[in-house]
Amino acid sequence: MPTGPFTDIALVKASLYATAARLAARTGALHAAKITGEDATTTIVDLAARSAPRTRVVCDVGCGRGTTTLALAGRLTPARLIALDQSRALLDVVVSRLRRAGHPADTVLADFHNLPLQEASVDVFVAAFCLYHSPRPDDVIAEIARCIAPGGRAVLVTKSVDSYHEIDHLVAATGLDPEAARRPSLYSSFHGDNAADITSNTALRVHRVVHQKHVFRFSGLDHLAAYVATSPKYHLPEHLIGRAAALAEELLRRLPDEPVIATSTVTYITAARP
Ligand SMILES: C[S@@+](CC[C@H](N)C(=O)[O-])C[C@H]1O[C@@H](n2cnc3c(N)ncnc32)[C@H](O)[C@@H]1O
């Protein structure tokens, strides 16, 4: 199994999601840049609503800041909504967002390799943009399969292995990280080309696979730096790590301040117990 910063469990826990700030900055930069592609949250909730015959108990695994959790609450109105993540800081954000929107939810602080949920107890699982953080995504899917109720559904979402490769080439060309384009993808462990096989080789039957291309246009180098500063992929000089403003200044010295186009294909899988 390929290893890298996204599957380094200690780094993921102690650094990448220790506070909500990096994820908020990364998501904000990507959302502001997106020019083509369906809204991922809407697609996930549509797939969950259409594919699941029952939505009494819904669990959002690796829920992050809870954007999907909120949409699931509003659309599926489950009797029990479980927001599960290994980050206390992110669960705190989810609790306050759900509370403000008037939705009760159980937040569960747990590692998705070992779900503290009863067998056959969940009607709908969503695991969006998180399984690529597992060095053993088959183990997480086996856990989901164990906890899914008869007739229940899972919606698993990930990105293509070549996501944002245009930015890798650009960062390499600046000389700030000449190896950027040669390093393995952050999404290597669970991506658009292996996700359906991993899912069906584990314990679920894949019903549907949908690929959607997303195109992003970063308006200039400030905008690009806001995204690059959140990526653990790049080996930048120490004084630029995580510092968008300093990184933008450095990029401006090396590149024309023009829009940058990048792409990613998002893959949605719906699956059930055989
Ligand atoms: C990119 S965020 C995705 C958040 C959300 N699902 C979304 O679609 O916006 C990845 C999330 O996976 C969580 N995560 C990573 N490894 C995990 C693990 N071993 N167990 C539970 N959650 C994990 C992180 O804490 C983070 O909240």
Which small-molecule ligands are present, each listed once? S-adenosylmethionine
The total beta strand count reads: 8
Q: Would you list the SSEs in sequence order as H and E? A: HHEHEHEHEEHEHHEHHE
As laid out across the biggest beta sheet, the strand order is 1-7-8-6-5-2-3-4
Structural class: alpha/beta
- Beta-sheet strand percentage? 15-25%
Distance between the termini: 26 Å
Low-confidence stretches: none
Task: Please summarize what this structure is.
The chain has 274 residues and is of the alpha/beta class. Helices cover 38% and strands 23% of the residues. The site of S-adenosylmethionine (SAM) has 19 residues, from α4.
Question: How would you characterize this protein structure?
Answer:
There is one protein chain. The chain has 274 residues and is of the alpha/beta class. The two termini are 26 Å apart. The chain has an 8-stranded mixed β-sheet with strand order 1-7-8-6-5-2-3-4, sandwiched between helices. It contains 10 helices and 8 strands. The mean pLDDT is 95. 38% of the residues lie in helices and 23% in strands. The longest helix has 13 residues. Helix 2 packs antiparallel against helix 9, helix 6 crosses helix 8 and helix 9 packs across helix 10. Strand 2, helix 4 and strand 3 form a beta-alpha-beta unit. The structure holds S-adenosylmethionine. The site of S-adenosylmethionine has 19 residues, from helix 4.
